[in-house]
Structure to design on (426 residues):
């Protein structure tokens, strides 16, 4: 694999030459500081980009062209990364080596760039039919956003956080009136803001003629503005004077327990390496993890337990599904288990097993093209290390490192969504 980066005035180009896969990939990532308004509009835009273009104004037209290009797939997404909003348009296609068409690569690049830079704009707004379809899909998704107890509990927990934290930017936290008030002209204005204001990185992966690609992109990428404003990654949590304990009723048939911890003043080693070793031993190491053993195997207190490390939000969250009569005891067991981690009361043998498991996982990730692409982009925006660097550093994590990481977990909130309350309609 050979990686190169080319810095142009208005965008960066990253090329990854590899013959490991029969397919190839191109994507463009736009990034800026997130706002509540921009996140909602990005959901509209990511759907609209995939529906039609100026050249292919109907979904059927776009699909037909995709088939003509040997099932070349076009997709788009928007997602939060800490304090940043990422808007991505991507395209997967067959290695041109296998296609008997001298113009195949050029046609794929044209198809991709048309989607990015030639959307179906009619009278200063996105196509009305496509726009209404997307709006209705978003409104429908809002109706089902909190149908599971874990989804509702997660929403309620982030709403306990003070301030306008990006964690609160989730579809279930918007009013339908906010969605209904958005117009096709609004999304076109937002699209132009993305092109003109967001930073842009193009990533191309595969066994390709990169000289041709560089030349083609330099002539056809319609980004003309230079961006040098600061884009933040990390968010700050306004911590309460003392940890919160909140219990709320629900109509669900099981309870949900969430424990949120802040992670302040982590070293780079702790953010990237120690966190995963700790998490595997404490919670996510399947049957051997401390929480699984203590909550489920020894005490039969829960149906399931998992955790979530939010690096850019400086948070660690434990999620438990259980019956309401077990909540108090489960909280006590979790706190005692964390204290054990702080004291080093876990087997050295499990540290060795954890490192082997994480090493195997990282090695297996190299079987997926997406892993190389994601690593490339994370390296660009956060100086993220390579797979080999991570494997080496994970194997240097000590028991003392794990204990010190555990001591940095500071309790923010304990939230319980209780089962057993009947729907008022009954």
């Amino acid at each position: 694999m050979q990686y190169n980066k080319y810095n142009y005035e208005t965008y960066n180009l990253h090329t990854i030459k590899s013959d490991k896969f029969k397919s190839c990939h191109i994507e463009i990532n736009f990034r800026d500081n997130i706002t509540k308004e921009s996140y909602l509009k990005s959901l509209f835009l990511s759907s609209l980009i995939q529906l039609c273009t100026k050249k292919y104004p109907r979904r059927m037209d776009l699909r037909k062209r995709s088939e003509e290009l040997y099932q070349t797939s076009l997709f788009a997404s928007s997602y939060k990364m800490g304090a940043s909003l990422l808007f991505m348009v991507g395209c997967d296609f067959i290695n041109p080596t296998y296609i008997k068409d001298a113009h195949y690569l050029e046609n794929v690049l044209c198809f991709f760039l048309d989607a990015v830079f030639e959307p179906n704009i009619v009278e200063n707004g996105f196509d009305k039919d496509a726009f209404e379809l997307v709006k209705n899909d978003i409104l429908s998704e809002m109706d089902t956003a909190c149908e599971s107890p874990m989804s509702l509990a997660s929403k309620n927990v982030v709403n306990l956080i003070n301030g306008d934290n990006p964690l609160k930017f989730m579809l279930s936290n918007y009013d339908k009136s906010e969605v209904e008030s958005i117009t096709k002209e609004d999304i076109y204005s937002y699209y132009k803001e993305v092109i003109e204001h967001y930073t842009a990185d193009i990533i191309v992966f595969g066994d390709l003629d990169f000289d041709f690609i560089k030349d083609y992109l330099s002539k056809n990428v319609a980004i003309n503005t230079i961006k040098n404003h600061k884009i933040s990654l990390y968010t700050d949590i306004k911590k309460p004077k003392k940890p919160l304990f909140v219990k709320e009723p629900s109509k669900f048939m099981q309870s949900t327990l969430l424990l949120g911890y802040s992670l302040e003043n982590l070293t780079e080693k702790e953010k990237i390496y120690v966190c995963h070793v700790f998490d595997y031993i404490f919670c996510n190491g399947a049957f051997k993890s401390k929480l699984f053993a203590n909550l489920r195997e020894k005490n039969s207190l829960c149906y399931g337990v998992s955790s979530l490390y939010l690096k850019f939000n400086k948070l660690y969250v434990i999620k438990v599904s259980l019956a309401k009569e077990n909540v108090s005891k489960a909280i006590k067991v979790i706190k005692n288990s964390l204290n054990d981690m702080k004291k080093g009361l876990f087997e050295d043998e499990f540290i060795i097993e954890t490192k082997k498991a994480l090493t195997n996982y990282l090695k297996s990730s190299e079987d997926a093209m997406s892993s190389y692409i994601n690593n490339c982009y994370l390296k660009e925006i956060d100086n993220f290390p390579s797979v080999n660097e991570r494997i080496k550093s994970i194997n240097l994590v000590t028991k003392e490192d794990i204990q010190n990481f555990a001591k940095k977990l500071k309790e923010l909130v304990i939230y319980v969504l209780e089962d057993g309350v009947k729907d008022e309609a009954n």
User: Anything to note?
Assistant: The mean pLDDT is 94. The longest helix spans residues 348-365. The two ends are 62 Å apart (CA to CA).
